[in-house]
Structure prediction request, 284 residues.
Amino acid sequence: MTAARNPAASPAPNSRAIVLCADDYALHPAVDEAVERLVHAGRLSATSCMATSPRWTEAAARLPVLRPRLAVGLHFNLTEGHGGAHAADSLGRVILQTYARRLSAASMRAAWRAQLDAFEQAMGTPPDFVDGHQHVHQLPRVRDVLLAELQARYAPGERPWVRSTAPAPGLWRQPKAAVIALLGGWTATRRWRRAGVATNPGFGGVYGFDAPDAAAYGAHMAHWLPHLPEGGLLMCHPAAEVVHGDAIGAQRPVEFAYLMSDAFGALLQRSGRHVHQGPAAPWA
Prediction:
């Protein structure tokens, strides 16, 4: 597949904006490189950042030049240990602890405050949005402490929006997407919206990280895009090369190759969608 062309081209009339968000910024230099290249190609809306990473401060220094075209968020983390540099647990254990109410509100407040502080210290501003590594931000108690911290920390007009994993219409039938939604996506979204917190209208990008090549990943994209409403969010996990030691490290360059391709640009046109760029959400 060939590289993306004409990144500055105006969207077609009546084209719907989508938010395409690359997760895990600062996890690895290859992830950061992919984010930068996708932004310059006009193929990325947002990136969510791992402020727990030992290389976060270094990686954050590369973001200000991108921020006029890129929303930059906090990727709240409980499950990635960064090679032992950060206290973490398995996703299964975190889910069990949250549903059994074994994670204290005090420990969650400390985690949210530490990661938000680290983000703000490196970037000099609050995050544009908040989400969670492996969607932990939506779990019981975690989601409630998030809401309380946003309300205490930021004035109503300055609060980051929060990623909803409530699937876009028609996408909940995929089993993994349904499980994510059942584990908190629907419930957390209702609670946040009732409290006046902005969230994306529809979510996609869920699959088994098993696409053998860019064309196979493109087939997933062709399924997701027609279901996304205006402002709907697609997550992605690109990297410019294989990230060794990462559970999805071999899948990352597959996603990157497709997102940079002319095939993706053609699919966007056929689907009547375009990638929104800028720090403000398209529904703001």
Q: What stands out?
A: The radius of gyration is 18 Å. The first helix runs from residue 29 to 40. The chain is about 35% helix and 10% strand. The beta strands are 16-25, 46-49, 71-76, 129-132, 161-162, 203-204, 233-236, 273-275.
